[in-house]
Amino acid sequence: MADKLPTTPRLIKSHLPVQFMPKSFWEQGSRIVYVARNPKDNAVSFYHFNRMNNAQPEAGEWSTFLQDFMEGKRVFGSWYDHVNSWWEKKQSYSNLHYMFYEDLIEVR
């Protein structure tokens, strides 16, 4: 039954940094939408996610978590490096649409 499912188009949601994306995404010309989020809002959301998700390292106190977040010591590293690496990829990969979460919520 699974063999009869279409292989394209597909929608894949990911939090991966650009360097961890499969090479096939770039080679096959996949269309990608990258949504960047304000670092403050991202840190708050990530903190609450870590507090409730047992698969993540213990979030600890907010002040410690925030310091680690700002220093890139959380899963996947620095927020800046993450969003910047996708921004740089956008410059050479035309099928990448880079947008901001805050712009999405303004449209409601």
Automatic annotation (TrEMBL):
EC number: 2.8.2.-
Keyword Transferase tagged: yes
Source domain of life: Eukaryota
Domain Sulfotransferase: 7-106
InterPro entries xrefs: P-loop_NTPase, Sulfotransferase_dom
Protein keywords: Transferase
Transferase among keywords: yes
Pfam families per UniProt: Sulfotransfer_1 (PF00685)
Broadest EC class assigned to this enzyme: transferase
Molecular function terms, GO-annotated: sulfotransferase activity
Family: Belongs to the sulfotransferase 1 family.
Name listed for the protein in its UniProt record: Sulfotransferase
Organism: Pundamilia nyererei
Gene name of this polypeptide: LOC106456317
